[in-house]
């Protein structure tokens, strides 16, 4: 499965990223693993936050250092998805968010891309010396649960908050 490559965002990808955001907004989907793209007014605002959050010294208040990748098709360089690796966990991430968040644009779902993206991200986790990776999903997100399990995820438990049940999976590398 070498259909995807993970690359760091740069301003060269601005139009691709904005198109990705537009597709999610049009479909009313959640933009998980995008480093706050949904809440950014402009690409430049988002890119600045992405860059700040790469390092402990510059991470924005209330967040943890994280690296966000674009998942591009190796065939045509199309932006398929985005995936975010948090370098460490805070209390909220330990219960609900995990080390990794990801999303695949609606037009590219059900093609196995999320499984491949997560596999590639796990290799990046090793480079960050993260050997036990927490990945979570809502209990009704069957596709995400399958993606996590296909990458070796073992369900530890489910936690509930505000009517939402989150499944917590650990992947040991």
From TrEMBL:
The keyword Transport does not apply. Transmembrane segments: none annotated. Residues 11-173 form the N-acetyltransferase domain. Keywords: Transferase. InterPro entries: Acyl_CoA_acyltransferase, GNAT_dom. The keyword Transferase applies. This is GNAT family N-acetyltransferase.
